[in-house]
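Lecture notes, unit on protein representations.

Consider one protein chain, 352 amino acids long.
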Amino acid sequence: MEETRIQLSDTRVTDRWGSVLRVRGQIATELDQMAEDLPGDARKQLRSLSRWFQGPAKLEKALRRPDVLAVCLPWIKPDTTPEGTDPSVDVRQTVRSGFLALSSKSAGARRLGRLMLYPLVILVVSLLLLVAFSCTIAPQFHEMFDEFGIELPRATKFVFSVCGFVQRWWWAFLLGPVIAALCFRMLNRIGQDARPGNLSWLDQHLMSTRSACATWMWHVSLLLEAGLTQDEAVSTASSVTGDPRLRQVDQASPDVISRRKRMPEPQLLLNPKYHLAGCTLGLPESQGKIALMREVAAYYWDRNRNVGDWWIYLLNAFILWCVGLSIVFAIVSLFMPLIAIISGLTGNSGLF
């Protein structure tokens, strides 16, 4: 997606960004030190932020990254002195506070990706058990039934047909989970450092519309607190969002937009489901509005987390039931001929 250049009406934002440039080395060092004490995604996220501050660290790039804004916001707020770093701003405490705010907001999308691992593990273990059963146990039963020369029930024939297919393509059943794991890991790494909020391609596509709206609202609130006008904040946050409906606005002519004295809202906010976000965005600009926008974003995140958990748990239950019923079906299908053999040996024929 091609990035449009950000035109700032208040050039003092650029002056205040100089305060960040003067302490960016300390910010990067503090982020690296914090990364040593954290595992997994949090460590990668901190190191990605540290590399960003060690680079050119341009203001225009920072405005497009809510994770960067969350860390350095105290230095670029309108009440910050542009001539130098405010001595009351402690770098260590500020960076830690910013990261805590960031981690609490971005954990939802990553959490959904991690929850998907549990049903995937169940499927992989089930495939391995299927291969082991088809190549070791099923042939022994098939040979025993052939020796007795009995007519097999349809269910037993079906089980042996499936086992025969698995025996011919066992390598695909073993290679498939490996390829799937490699693809999952690759998709979870694509764009992880480049995307706003340090989200990977997989995180972006697992993120629901409600979560995307919450991230957009949070990004807009950070930009407003940094001193941008609402039009500038909405335009900047919409240019990097993963949801196209947050990038699309009403197709109005420039003269109509000028008469409105503000840009039209994204199309998604016209949906009644997101009426609360639209009403919050329409309030007069103030610190109370910024706080309310973050509360709305937190509400959408919590709502999305609850719905996502419900679907994941339902998927887990469905997979477990399918695996359990398949095992029961296979056992019953194999024991039906055994019961027929025992009945024939004891003189009680005609059970099956």
